[in-house]
Records
---
Amino acid sequence: MRFGGHESFAVREGWLSRGLELLCEQPTLLVDEFAEDYLGVGRNMAKAIRYWLHATGLAQSAAGEGSQPTATPLGRLIHKRDPHLMNQGSWWALHINLINNPESAFTWHWFFNQWALQRFDRSPCIEGLRRFAAANLTRVPASRTLERDVATLLQSYARSIPTVADDPEDSADSPFQELNLLFHFGASGYYQHNFDPKPIPRGVFGFAVSHLRTADSRTEFTLTELERANCAPGRAFVLRGDDLFDLLLAYEEQDKSLFALRAQAGERAVRIALKKDPLDWMKLHYAEQGAKTHA
């Protein structure tokens, strides 16, 4: 399980699109000794970009850090359909990959699947991560490492309330903030999950559900599973059961071949299209959203 790797840098605007371009067109430059010059950032930022490309499922390497990276099928699809990462569905997919990747992003996996407090400040969040790590890992990282991971995660997702007027030249805000999953209240210092309904495209919803597929290719899930299971849509999108049901009802009205609601032992359940793997769902998303193909 990996902590750190991001050099305490949250993903910044333009980082992943620049990294993905190199990854797909000149991958050797990502591990070149002058990679920072090709990416247009500092040396530590270049290391962070390489980390984020792997952690979000855009890049893969045969033998870990330092080996020649290649684009994953998702990375190639995004480079073709949304090369500048302007489509919010792309960021949803990267977020879903992050919380499904405890090997590279243990803190992200823990925060969205295990951290139960809706409203909190940073200190108990760090302590919660330490306790979870102590209960599940043979070796607990140093306190400073856990603090940096939590700080980077919160910086990645938390939108300031009230909105802070930033310098337009400052590109430190992370595009993950646009997902509206977490708020930070400047007056009190508290953070709060945002459980408000969110307009999740059905291809993105299917991408999230496809990560729940079991070894026997089960395609029917109860609403409770979709809300509460590890990495389920309710966890990924920070949504409660009623709002998930409303989304599924809208999807069913659009096309029953992809999502079909039914009753199962007195509980609401949904049948998901069997034929679609995660990449199929994102192809559907881009087709429906009309994302421009990279020339």
Note: Residues 291-295 have pLDDT under 50 and may be disordered.
---
Amino acid sequence: MKYSELADAECAIAQALGVVGEWWTLLIVRDVAGGFHRFEELHAELGVSRRILSERLAALVEHGVLARRPYCEHPPRCEYHLTPMGQGLLPVLVSLQNWASRYVLGDGSLTATARPRSAEAQRVRHLIGTKIPEMTLIDTAGTPRDPVSDEDWTVIYCFPGAYAQPEGYPAGWGAIPGVPGCTLESATYRDRMSDFTARGARVYGVSTQRPEDQEAFATRQRLPFPLLSDQELRLAAGLRLPTFRAAGSDWLKRGTLLAGSDREIRGVLYPIPDPAGSVDDALALLDRQRTGRHAS
């Protein structure tokens, strides 16, 4: 019998820990969200013993956090995918990452950026060579859309947030380091769109804002490309993207990903000290990849 069944029966925190409180459990959820669905993939990624992994996976399936999906009949094999209950844990993962980045790895200050040699910046650079998990985000037309396009290249620029009207911004928003410049960055992508199109690249902007707020901003700025809402934090959790918490919500820190049509991340820009200048940097990154030169 679990501790949560013996005591604190009315405490939701204690009951939650009875399901996901063991060391490996949230790491398994983290990696399944990141696109690792098969036992051998999870075993290689986590480095945990096969017995412990089997036990934790079975427990997560029993509790309804994961669901098994067969992919091979002979011999029988299955993949593990997050259920809606499991998807509900993604904000928990993001909150834990926020807390650790700010208070364990950082000095406790609220910021929407990072130092170039920080552990956070190194983690983002290590995304090169990984693949963007299968998912859909809601675009400004209210349509589910894959964040990786069907073009040869996809440029995904993540930004904290931008609103059509000044009163849409949370109080004190502009005083957070790394936040100012979202409108300028989007407008610069707009003005340089022909340069990306000529290179066979599609541009998506991503924030955690509601789709209706993104739609109003995109209309006001006449953006010729979709903005995608990561309101449910699927992309943030799946790639462990840098985020910060302000005004009671989680926001993406500014960064840019370059992905190929195979979903592999070929280049990253993080941190970004100059929002408008990052558009030229994204074009340079794209050119280096198109000519076969290393980019990071």
Note: Residues 68 and 80 are 5 Å apart (CA to CA).
---
Amino acid sequence: MAVVGGGIVGLSCAWHLQRHGISVVLFERDHVGAGASWGNAGYAAPALAVPLPEPAAVRAGLRSLIDPRSPVLLPKLPGRELTRFLVGFLAHSSHRRWSAGLRALLPLNVRALAEYDYLAANGVPVEAVPAPFIAVLRNAHEGAGLLAELAGAVAAGFPVDYDLLTGAEVREVEPLAAGAQLAIRLRGQRMLNPPRLVDALAESVRTRGAAVHEGTAVTQIARRNGKVELSTVDGMRDVDAVVLAAGAWLPRLAREHGVRVPMHPGRGYSFSVRTPTLPSGMLNFPGPRIACAPIGDRLRVTSLMELWPADRPPVASHARRFAARARAVLPSADWSSVADQWVGPRPLTADGLPVLGPTRTEGVYVAGGHGMWGVTLGPVSGRLVADLVAGEPADPALAPLDPRR
């Protein structure tokens, strides 16, 4: 059995396949955890794992076409793949469809944190620490979108525990929130160290016998003579079945197997910096779209939604724009200490839902399209797909996430 992709989703699939006694070989085009699983802010926040396409996101995208300061960046002349994605995104950006997407994600969201507890209880040294999420607001308008998302989560049946803080209250508990006029504090979420998480999972699957081939890109998948044939940079490989968990590169491999959901990379930028104090959880600045969280003894800062091809080099002007916004909201940081700079693609789907399950090709399965919520939903997605591959009845949670939809 093969797994293509060494991020949190692919490693979770491999780990759960091994739980069923299935021998696994894993192929990763770069090194384990090199993609979005490494460079994110390390927050497992099921209360915030909502579909990306909704009216506010559309307004942000349109604003990016005329405002060079926008945190959502689109090419001036989108190609065919991006155009198809944007058309699908617009079609799903109604309140009705967004609410339906919330209901589709609910079964995964309610089980997401328990999966981290399960991994820890079964020998994977994962620390998913309870930590608050604080949205730092310069005015009430900046919190409107988040409050609407939280209200939608509650309406879909997900329990959400949050309160409102005055500027003085939030500055007292989080000194880095110097410009806060008010804040939204969300409890009940978890914080992780992303590099440690992927390293721990990778070590666990290796220890249990998986062969992990790093620097080995899979370029094509086909079914021939009752086997699934993988074309790699090192030659051909026949396996009984394969799970495609290749992140932003998933569409290139899955399209010929009937996966027609429009997908496109949404690249993000991150770096770490030293600060006088570290927050107790995630600090999110909705206005400038800056998110930061403590990773070790440094603050990781993330931002941008750049709809650029996955393998394009970083855009220097975009990185400078990101850094300028981060400096504005974190004036006390030591900006001479910037390190761990990263650019990577997040796998977005036009309807904002992951693709989990079988394709039209026997023995070819898909696990991906989690957007910004791969850390939150990766472990539970890995379990659901692995259980299906192992022959268990399909979990009803998979129905709206069918890759052939």
Note: The CA atoms of residues 220 and 231 lie 5 Å apart.
---
Amino acid sequence: MPTNQLRNVLLLACCQAIFIGGQTTIFFIGGLIGYELAPDKAFATLPVTTVILGTACMTIPASLYMGRFGRRTGFLTGSVIGATGAIVCSIAISIASFPFFCFGTFLIGFYNAFCQYYRFAVADAAPKDKSARYVSWVLAGGVVAAFLGPQLALWTRDLIPQHTYLGSYLTILCLIMCVMALISFLRIPSLTAEEKAAESRSIFEIMSSKQFVAAAGCGMIAYAVMSLLMTATPLAMLSCNFIDADAGLVIQWHVIGMFGPSFFTGDLINRFGLFRIMFIGVVVMMAAPLLDLQGIAFGNFLGSLLLVGLGWNFVFIGATTLLTRVHRPSERAKTQAANDFLVFGATAVASFLSGALLHNFGWHVVNLVALPLVAIAGVLILWAIMNDRKEEVLAN
């Protein structure tokens, strides 16, 4: 691997680790803080939803902004917005304001939108035959987050005794500052004049392609189902008389499942094929809600979130790799923007429904909703496989 590519992969992997560590902290405690501050407990997960909603709203502007000014400038700009959001959240906790807290998490969602492009940034500079491997290596940085995120929330929850979890958000502010320092060393080449001048299809033409439908559809479902179950799990566990340390351990293993396989997912894709690995991911994700439906013991919660994390890894890395095959260099920004807008729009809806379903109908219904969604992803992958084979036959 050339030195500049190695540096970019290492820097982005470190940024990914810090970002996911902070995000895991927010997802873990967001619902708990929401439960304390919200006047209606059905809206307990709204702070988590506003993070994802902010991500969805900023995905298109973030991609277009980076297409114009470059990845490094974009990532630095996103970090400034994220730092502002962490400050707002800290103030909101200190004054016990639920609306202000949701506004702060919404701003953090803007920051998250920029961070979601770490995986595309490394793919942009990678040879096509190595894109899956590089994407998976960057996402592997999230393994650190498995140990950093939940533990960070627990270690810092009483850092300021008068306000539980205020110290956690001040720590998130410090993490974002670390990301800014690392990003300053990033060097991602911009598009050449020839690439910028190349013919570019309309976004509607790109989105109507079969590969885009499969990539975006699977990415949407993988992230939505993961968010649906992960957001509700801590609240469900507390309602079953588990303590927050138990919920933190479950979230920790969930994040290990999400990012641990990334060390070899790219190689598996190259060896066994993209769609095959994605379909295995769907099967694993399907097992998660089925396990939850068997009981409410600690092992059910732990095993389910571990499985949904593993399945998410295979499906999401596969979907990201597939998307890199959809666009030309001149179409990169708008294609990635459209994809992530759809992915995080669906995730925001799932996150909000998570709290409402849990509060009004119970834990079993949350899992029953997840099952048909995962099945749709399986159908999309089978459809993509059939189309891929049909194109091979026509080519011959």
Note: The chain has a mean pLDDT of 86.
